[in-house]
């Protein structure tokens, strides 16, 4: 029997990798996309086939996590075996500007989807994955962070995701739903959104080295993250839903780097060596050979409350799921810079922060 998956957030970074992964496994995949005035399916266009063709296994449906009736109809129509809830307003800094919307989509959106499953009487048959996050640890209480580390959210995004985490646990306990939280540490790729710090840096390095941009403006260079590759992490999501019982898992590499390390590495991938001068908001990154200022600080990118350090302990996922991160940080950054150089050489550059 062909398995059927419903993926919210299918047009995002993880959604695109997950849909491809599930199609390769033989699934019929139903993605949810939002109505937009411009095309927003670029990341999954390569998966799409004309629905009139035989053997089509990838479908896109309009939907929104703020629209309960739409979600009920979609779950009813698709009758999925597995639901992956990846849709979210996923930008931490933006959540300080749009806290109510973020709570609506990320917290209540998760509840709406869980309720759709319950109302339709599918709690016995559906398996549900919730995209939880290392941002839950926020002001960290223990390092490295694992499944038992207490949460301390530091943004409207993290607070919304905290609700989503607990409502997922509650539906598992109250209704026996196979519902799990993947507590995923940062994961990136060449199709990462352009305003997250990794992709912002690799695009800027590409643009600077192609002569299309002069300076990269950043916020907190000292923040440290455990950065893995999205391709590895979507495999982990699937493994969680194949496990014999519903449990929450951390996915991480177990290694962390600062934003500063990332900038240096990205420039090195384009054969430019960076040296730092000054301190605080006056700190600059200069080209070691020419002295040209390539990186400056813009306090606009400082967050009202910051998460200083995230480092995950993926032992449980390794032991119980056989999962590990295979793509290393340096290879990933080099690949992202190379990708952005190819894209910008072909299409040019528009500024985006
Ligand atoms: P992206 O921002 O790339 O993708 C988010 C997706 O959600 C997009 O498809 C977006 O649509 C969609 N979306 C946003 N709001 C709504 C809404 N109201 N209704 C329906 N769809 C909506 O995120 P990622 O792929 O990086 O992350 C996937 C999930 O995992 C998110 O929930 C994120 O919070 C979480 N997460 C991500 C981590 C990471 O490091 N990447 C780590 C831990 C958790 P559109 O394309 O139209 O904008
Ligand atoms: P994060 O990712 O907040 O960890 O959330 P992001 O890449 O936005 O920030 C990482 C760190 O870099 C610092 N930083 C900057 N960040 C951005 N975006 N732009 C800058 O100019 C900049 N300068 C420094 C930030 O302050 C921060 O400390 C991501 C998202 O994918 C979430 O959805 C997910 O839940 C978590 O990862 C795990």
TrEMBL record:
It comes from the Bacteria. Belongs to the NAD(P)-dependent epimerase/dehydratase family. GDP-mannose 4,6-dehydratase subfamily. Its cofactor is NADP(+). Catalyzes the conversion of GDP-D-mannose to GDP-4-dehydro-6-deoxy-D-mannose. It comes from Rhodothalassium salexigens DSM 2132. One of its GO terms (molecular function) is GDP-mannose 4,6-dehydratase activity. It catalyses: GDP-alpha-D-mannose = GDP-4-dehydro-alpha-D-rhamnose + H2O. It holds the Pfam family GDP_Man_Dehyd. PANTHER family: GDP-MANNOSE 4,6 DEHYDRATASE, GDP-MANNOSE 4,6-DEHYDRATASE. This is GDP-mannose 4,6-dehydratase. It is an enzyme of class 4 (lyase). Keywords: Lyase, NADP, Nodulation. The keyword NADP applies. Gene3D superfamilies: NAD(P)-binding Rossmann-like Domain, UDP-galactose 4-epimerase, domain 1. Its EC number is 4.2.1.47. Residues 6-336 form the NAD(P)-binding domain. InterPro entries: GDP_Man_deHydtase, NAD(P)-bd_dom, NAD(P)-bd_dom_sf. GO terms for biological process: 'de novo' GDP-L-fucose biosynthetic process.
